[in-house]
Amino acid sequence: xxxxxxxxxxxxxxxxxxxxxxxxxxxxxxxxxxxxxxxxxxxxxxxxxxxxxxxxxxxxxxxxxxxxxxxxxxxxxxxxxxxxxxxxxxxxxxxxxxxxxxxxxxxxxxxxxxxxxxxxxxxxxxxxxxxxxxxxxxxxxxxxxxxxxxxxxxxxxxxxxxxxxxxxxxxxxxxxxxxxxxxxxxxxxxxxxxxxxxxxxxxxxxxxxxxxxxxxxxxxxxxxxxxxxxxxxxxxxxxxxxxxxxxxxxxxxxxxxxxxxxxxxxxxxxxxxxxxxxxxxxxxxxxxxxxxxxxxxxxxxxxxxxxxxxxxxxxxxxxxxxxxxxxxxxxxxxxxxxxxxxx
Length: 343
Description:
Layout lengths: L25 H6 L1 H23 L9 H26 L7 H39 L3 H4 L1 H24 L3 E6 L3 E6 L2 H37 L6 H33 L4 H24 L1 H26 L11 H12 L1
Antiparallel strand pairs: 1-2
Helix pairs in contact: 2-3, 2-9, 3-4, 3-9, 4-6, 4-7, 4-8, 7-8, 8-9, 9-10
Subcellular location: Membrane
InterPro entries: GPCR_Rhodpsn_7TM
GO cellular component, one term: membrane
């Protein structure tokens, strides 16, 4: 794991110069300014979304666990970015410890890809659960709680295990550019093909198949019931398919370029542009999910009604004349004086 493609660490030298290997150059900082803006906007959108979850119990449902797990990975991606950004603009040590240096580099190089791979499989799991709900009218979240828990754990552990194996057998290594970036590079084409298949092609293909199966079931059911009437359940199932399809198209368009180029290039201007698209997608995620899911619309409507009622109450209370706290035998005197003053 101690191999670098550009240059090796050497903190001890007869002619000592302060290299500050973790500190970004001015150019490197400027290159990430657009990503900083996108991540700052994402913090605002995600904060608004999670406040809604805090104040609206109606959206706290087990059936939304994959959506919330997905949004948690978004938050972890934002935390990873701000951690690296803060460290890279404040790390003025000439000789940081080897442990700290490698920790920062591995977080910068691997955590981003790890979380992005998790997201594609989370959306696949969400899509499969919705298909079972649509086709078989079964509540997976009530009937298979243990299976869902095992799926969560397997997903997180197996993805991390894949990264560890690739570094352990030297299929992947760190590409360290002092005062710029730490990236992952792969030593042969086979592991690149494997990663593209497992991290992109396979889950995307499975998602397309499941979406097609869900849409086909909804279309066949609607055709059979057209002679009579379309039930509320069928309308809800159709909305689920349309919602996920819209979200998935936007998500793939903004997410996939970063993942594919990460496996092929591992750096460069084009990768920076695609990572910016990835952070824009993170900023849009809460807005898209809230806009497409009727449960969030209903929660916002209830919250809006509550705010309007409170404003009306406060306005009517402010317009009233408060009761006096003076003695009874002088009340009539104050009333007459108040009328005279108003005239």
